[in-house]
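Consider a protein example.
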Amino acid sequence: MLRNIGEPDGNNYPRSTNKEGKLVTTGMYDWTPGFFPGSLWYLYELSGDSIWKNNAERWTTSLEPLKTFTAHHDLGFMMYCSYGNALRLAPKDEYRDIIIQSAYSLATRYSEKTKAIKSWNYHRSWDGEESHFPVIIDNMMNLELLLEASKLSGDKKLYDIAVAHANTTLKNHFRDDYSSYHVVCYDSLTGEIHHKVTAQGFSDNSTWARGQAWAAYGFTMMYRETKDPVYLEAATKIVNFYLKHLPEDLIPVWDFNVGQKSYIPKGNSYAVEFQASLKDASAAAIACSALFDLGNFTKNQNYTDIAVKMLKNLASPLYRAQPGTNGDFLLMHCVGNIPNHSEIDVPLVYADYYFLESLIKYKRLAS
C-alpha cells in the first residue's frame, strides 16, 4: 500500500476500494486520514521494525495543518489516532503541542446550551427534517483527544467538556435496553431535542451496529480515563446489547434490525430498496478492541474470551484478505454507509486500525 500511494501529499490517505477493487484514497479534511498513520504506528508497535516507525512519522506529520481545523467533530479520529500514538511510541514535544492545539480546536464546537459537541454543521434526515446541531454517537470516540490534552496541558476545561458530552450522550442517545440512536438533533438556542434519527443505520428506530460499537468503545474509554463507575455500568449494558444480537461468528450484520418488521427506512435512503443482511467487519473490530478493555476493567473473563474469539474470526480467511488483494487492506466485508449508497461490502481503513489495535491488546494478554 505504501508503494502504491507514494509520499503523503495531503490527498492520498487510504480509505477503501472502488467497484473494481482498486484503492480509494481521500484528502486530509475527510474524517478518516488519521487511521492510516495510526495503523503504521500499530505495525511498529507489533513488530518493532523501524521501517514502520519512519513511515508512521512521515504520514503523521503530514496532518499537522489539521490542528486548527474546526469544520467538523472528527479531530479525535484525525489527530489522536495519528499523533496520540506518535506521542505514546516516539515522544516529541511538538506532538504534545499539536495534540493540545487540536483539542482546543475540537472544543470550539462545544455548546453550553446543549452540553454537547456539535458533530456536523447541518443535517437533513431521510424524511426531510433539518438540524443545525446534530450529535452522532460516533462523537464519543473524539473525547479521548480532549482527555489526553487535559492531562498534557493541565487545563481541566477540556476534561469537563468531555465529561459533559459523555453525560449528555448517555442521557439522550440510548433506549431503555441500551440500544443507541445514531443522531440526536438539538435546538442550538434552547438545548431541547428536536428529533432522534439515523444517518447511516437502517431506520430511525433501528440500532446501527457500528454506532453501537462506537458507544461501547467510547464509554469503556471514559471509564478508563475518569474511573467513574457510571461509565463502566453504561459500557457493560451497551456491550451486553451488542453481544445479545450477534450471529454465531460474532461479526454483526451492519444494522441489528435490517429487514425486520416495524423498522422502516424513510425517504431517499438507499436502505429502502437495499435490505441485504451484509456483515460489517469494521463494527466487529471496534467492538473487539472495547471488549478487551471491558474484560480487564470488569474482571469478567467472558468478555475477554469473546474478544479473543471475535479477533480470531476476523483473522480467519473469511474476513482477512490474502496479500496482494483487497486494495492491500487487511480486512474484507465492511459496510460504510448503505443509506447513502456508499462503501458497501468493501474494506475500510478504520476496520484495519481497530483490528491492529485489538491484536496489540491480545498480544499484551498473551505475554
Summary: The first strand starts at residue 13 and ends at 17. The radius of gyration is 19 Å. The chain is about 45% helix and 10% strand. The mean pLDDT is 98.
